[in-house]
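Convert to structure. Protein one:
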Amino acid sequence: MTAEMDVRRNGDTGSYEAVVDGQVVGMIVYHVPRGGQRVTLSHTIVEPGYRGRGIASRLVKHALDDLRGRDQKLTNYCTFVADYIADHPEYRDLVDDRFPGRATVPDREPRER
């Protein structure tokens, strides 16, 4: 990717956003249930013209690092996030044991990066 990309958490829209040249080109949709101890991630979306550039992976990494920094657990409904965690097992501890979500993290060895 040639343009600079920023990733930010947008509490107004409930999304983590990837921004290139002032335009949102990707996002992860999230919801914070009452209490705020966990976050539900539901979708990862990247605009077609920006796919294949690692934007989704950077979004997921940013979101998971943000959850860790906020001491929140993850309830996951996004298969991309589940695959990312399978490939980056250092994030498995973020998945809420009581409410893991429907997109479970595959029990496999991480793929080579």
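Protein two, convert as well:
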Amino acid sequence: MRPIALLLALLSMLVATTGLRAQDFGGFSVVTSPADDPVSISVERSAESVRPGDQFVLAVVFDHAENWHINLHDPVVPPEMGSFVPSPTTIRPEPAEGLSYGRIQWPVPYTAKVDFLFTGTPIDYQVYAGRAVAFVPVRIADDAAPGERTVTVRVGFQACDDSVCLQPEIVERTVVVTVDAAAEPGSPPDLFAGFDPSVFADAGAWGERALAPVNAGAPKSKFLGLVDLPGPGTLGGILGLALFAAVGGFVLNLTPCVLPVIPIKVMTISHHAGESRARALTLGLWMAAGVVAFWLGIGIPVAFLATVTDPSIIFGIWWVTLGIGLVILVMGIGIMGLFQITLPQQIYAVNPKADSPHGSFMFGVMTAVLGLPCFGFVAGALLAGAAAMPPSVVMVIFGSMGVGMAFPYLVLAAMPGLIKKLPKTGPASELVKQVMGLLMIAAACYFIGAGVLALLSGAGKLAGMGWWVKSVHWWAIAVAMAAAGGWLLIRTFQISRKPLNRVAFALVAALLMTVGIGAAWNRTDHLRHNFWVDFSPEALARELDAGRVVVLDFTAEWCLNCKTLEATVLSREPVRGQLLSSGVVPMVADLTSTDSPGWDTLRELGQTGIPLLAVFSPQGGPDRPVWMGNAYTPTQVVDAILRAKGEVSQAVMEP
């Protein structure tokens, strides 16, 4: 098993090295400046001088005027407040030499009465009010050099009363602390009486992950665009996330990334079911173990490195995507029985031939690898707050995803009677292998093309090339799928005389040819008549400053779900009409390469994967989109654009 362990370790290392906000005001009015400053902010230190190896505390003090408040750091919106997305309070101390920061101790919430809908009936809403003090624990390194340290603390907040919210703002406060080996310990001021010193003993409460905001100000993504997810703060919340992750893993089997290889695995299980039920179950368990082991291995860098949030970013490395495409190509040709090559014994150590425990395990790993490009579609919402989750919760999510993905194969292996009617030998069995081989060749064309485009994009050459460069591999995919459909149609009529079989497989053949050619045609048409503006942080800020709504599509050539959403939602009415309407700028962030600036923006929005669509209004700015979604419908997109336009209209009408 050493080659397997080495492979999984390399995959985890690869993900780790590649790793190297939203505002919808709902019924509230938004004003740009108050008559008086409703919230004053100050930062105090518990000691003026500290010794190397010591610790001290920063107190961030919010003093609110009467009837004013700010949102929690992780706001909870009552159902009565509808689509309101509050701007959370954030505290971010800047790095300073020899200092490390621990997990923030936030104030106790206060229940305010707000008349959100102007009905005359206030509702309860949790906020910070009065004098609210947040504590930031600080450690001094044992080898810290003596001298002064200036600590800058950036505080983000939004002041509101019971019916009016001011525009969110960020302020900076600084304090100076002296590192001195001769410093004498003293008693902290009374301001620090509410600090819980036990945080200094919590090893997991320090570093970037400890300071990462639970809610970076963006709208919380819905799981598969449908369901709100529970938070990870309770056992029930963790179990809920695990359940949704398992469902997401199961759904991965139905995405275009994994679907082509499912019949091959089913046929493998069916073949061994004919030999022995115990053997089928054993190989099914090994296949499931491969799937789960892959996701756990990929989850390690996400759990323990704050810079890694989306493992699918490895497909932005051209040689990874190209290499996977070549492996799939060889597998597809081999499954069709077009060659028989005797390889060195070392090669068979990683050959995913699913007739042995080792081969079944590797086949499971390969299945999970194919699911990575569609990872963001099902896991984007699950891991939106991964930077602030404990590593154990992140690993639970990845492990559950693996279990969900492996579940259907375990069921088939445990109950082989479900597939006993599938052909195990003969012309029908060979036909299935040949068609599946052609579909795998289509998948290989996709990955090879995406790898080449990632190479060109990383070298800065893709932007200057014609539209046809991005469409060549789509027509190769179309040819392979049309060949699969045509061969299925011809051989079905040669093998079977049953009218029902002929009609059924003729429909499948027509579907394969239609999908392949239709996808290539739509992609080519999209590229030829492209109306999307290329993203850059400067371009986004410029369009928003000009008072325009921006619809930003985060996509990549290796993200098949991204292309599906572009073809079925963004390129069709009524969304297309809204994108081309006055005052709206459609913008695309191409993440095909790991060097794309869009990756930084994606992380700043608190998101982990693609596809992702974000709608910005000038009032919210580039940090606070009106709406975001990993999976979305035309109605959701149109509603978000109209809502963003409404904010623009409201701002124009205000004196």
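Residues 20-35, 212-219, 340-352, 649-655 have pLDDT under 50 and may be disordered. Residues 246 and 400 are 5 Å apart (CA to CA).
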